[in-house]
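Please go through this protein, sequence plus structure tokens, and consider how the sequence yields the tokens. Keep your notes short.
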Amino acid sequence: MVLIEPDVSVRDALKLLLKGEGWQVQCLDDCDQLVAAIQDTSVVAVISESSLPGCSPQEVFEQCSKHSLPVIFTGHDQSLQGAVDLIRQGALDFLDKPFPQSRLLDLLEDLEQRQLN
């Protein structure tokens, strides 16, 4: 799992949550290391803040699509239409911050089940 989150406290909380559920997590604070991070064949998804400095959601999609990696976007400054557009463009989902942790875990569990089948 690659987690791109510029806010240290949010990044640390999500990392703790995901690791507690048994996920291996590589944390990034921006997109600069995304290309290198997704070269790892154990990466199953990317969770990304939707409004990263210097990196658009489309750039995240572009890099992830090269490796057939699903993307879950998070954020608090997207309009409803912006969130819908991200999903239409291929995001697995958009989670508006603050979101229930269970929602993220449910998405990841569903993703894991799909990959097993």
Q: What stands out?
A: DSSP finds five helices and five strands in the chain. The longest helix spans residues 101-116.
